[in-house]
Structure formats: structure tokens, C-alpha cells
Structure prediction request, 336 residues.
Amino acid sequence: MILNAWSVATGFLAIVGIVLGAAGLVVAARALVAGGARSALEPGADASVDRARLAFLIGGVLLIVRFLAWPLFYGTLKSFVPELSTQGVMCAFGVTRIDPARVHALEFAKPLVLALLGAGWILTAAPPEGSPNEAAAVRRVRLVLLALAGGLAVFECGLELAWLFADKGGREVTCCSTFFGSEAARVDASIGPLASLRELGPVAELGLLFGGGAATIAAALWLRRSRGTALAVVALAVFTLIQVPVAVQVWVDVVAPSVLGLPYHHCPYELVTETLALGPAAAMGVLGRAALALPAFGLLLAKSAPLHAFAARRRALGLGALWLGSELLITTVHLL
Prediction:
């Protein structure tokens, strides 16, 4: 284990996350089993609602803790560079190659935990004219989301502790300028599912990133102002999710070399650890696209809680458009 201020802070938040995640899972499950989704008009509903409120309070604290832990994880990666430099590590990306399976699992699990918790928070947009039965249906969905997020948070935090305590010595790595980290990738930088985008050139790739982003924001704002159709909501979610790998590829191909000033350096890890604003921009891009995809899943509430579902859709689309637009704006400033 490499012991420094970063790893201690990361480990502390992981322990807190395990406690909160386990508590959230247990309390949410007990609230569901005990009838935490009862209507306020049913007998014994007060106790059930109180259990649900406690679960949501735990979920809110867990959301804050894991949100703080997300950028701290990348700071910890960077802090390990001096200790591992004798093994060939030159940047945060090199640290990820010491234990790539755990690191990549953490990189996937962290935003997923936040997305589940954020979805529960977005569903709090309850219109005052909603019926008690609608509120009960929404409460049930929020409890299920919290239980899933709590269980995933326990796994994510446990994995993070295992990664922190794992022995990182004795393994030589080549800290190269490619993103797709196999030995073959060092020789052929075109490896990757969307590597053919490089053939289009940087201008065309940026056009895909900004054009797709602008179209997504316009569609989200239009759907926010109108009720739209279920097909339109699903189409927006699919279009948004398709853009995720494209955005990653453009950041690797164009944004990283341009911002870092190194034409052949395709390392997004240095973008988020060496620049002040591109780390938050990347986070806003991930969470913004997740928010824009959320209304498609919110269609499951369209019949049982139509007013709540519509209010949550408006909040998700508004936040998603704001976050995605902020990512594109910050990226533009850095490219200029």
C-alpha cells in the first residue's frame, strides 16, 4: 500500500461509503418490506413514511460522499506516480496499468452509483397536486433505487479499499501515449472500437462532438417544454448514450493532444489531473448524459404517477442540458 494524504482520504471516504451504503440498503429494504410505499391515507403509513425518509436522508449523504470521492480517486492515481516511477510510471494512466481490472471496474462503478442516487434525487420533484397514491408509487421507486445504489456503493468502496491495500510493486509498465492500454496499443495507436474516426480528421471529429451535443441539448429543451411522446423520449436516450463512446474517442484523439500541447499524447487521464476545469467538465458530461437518458426509464412511472413522472422529466432534461452544455463550453474554451 502507498500511504500518503490522498490514499488516506480516499480510504476514509471508502469506509464511510461502506457504512452509508450498507445502512441505505438495509433501511430501504426494510422500508419496502414494511410497506414504505403505502399511501399516506393508509393505516400505519406514518411509520412507513418515516422509514422511507430516513432511507432518503442516508442516500443524500451517500450521494455527497461518493461525489467527493470521484475526483479524489483521480487525484490519488496522480499522487502514486512518484512512488511508482521506478516501474516505468510517468502519469496517472501508468498507475492504472498496475492493476487495470480493478481500476476500470472502479471507473465504471463510481458514476453508476452517482447516477442511481441522482435518479432518486431527481424524482423528488413532486408537484403539490399529485395524489397520495402517486407519491407512494414514486416513493417505492426511490427506495428500490436507493437499495440498488447502496449495494453497489458497498461493492465499489470495498473494491477501492482492496485496490488501495494491494501491493503495487514489482510490476513493470510502459506508460505510453495511447488510451487503449494493451501492449499492442503501444505499437498501433489505432486500436479501439471507434478508432476509424481518426480517419475523418480532427475537424470532423470535433464536429461530431459539438454537433451531436448541440442537437442533444436542443432536443432536450424541446422535450422539456412539451410533453412529447414516449418514442421521442426513448430516441433522445438512445441518441445520448450512443454519443458517449464517440465523446471519449474525440477527447482521446483531439482534445488531449491539443490541450496538452503534445500532438501524439492521447491521454485523457492527464486532462483531468493536470487541468483545473476539464476534470469537472468530464464529470458534467457523464452525469449530464445520464440525466438525459433518465426520462426513458421514467416512462415506467407514466401510468402510476403521471404528474410526478412529468415533473421529474422536466428536471432531468433541464439539468442534463445544463451539464452537457457546460462540458461543451469548457472544452471549447480550452481548445481555443
